[in-house]
Design brief:
Length: 97
């Protein structure tokens, strides 16, 4: 089973570019918003990941690997994923005063 996981901070373009990521990585479906400690049920019903799914998360890589182990997970940082689809780096966030 291979699940592609793109991880990065909130507001880094994961959801905005989800469809482009899905096509680029040849994934079937997109699952957005998993957080460590959840069973993927942040949605109305629990989500079952299938071979070929794309998971978008702001969890750190260690939390992802702890949850999924090495069961065919392809872990990609958002910066790398953005480069792979031809978009620029994650924009710098403005600091609030």
């Amino acid at each position: 089973m291979t699940i592609t996981v793109i991880h990065g901070p909130q507001a880094s373009g994961k959801t905005f570019h989800a469809e482009r990521f899905r096509k680029h990585f040849g994934c079937r479906d997109v699952v957005d918003g998993w957080r460590p400690g959840s069973d993927l049920s942040d949605h109305s019903e629990p989500v079952v990941l299938r071979n070929g799914d794309l998971l978008l998360t702001n969890a750190n890589p260690d939390a992802v690997m702890k949850r999924f182990g090495d069961r065919g997970v392809r872990l990609i940082p958002i910066e790398q994923a953005r480069r792979m689809i031809g978009v620029g780096p994650v924009p710098k966030r403005r600091q609030r005063r």
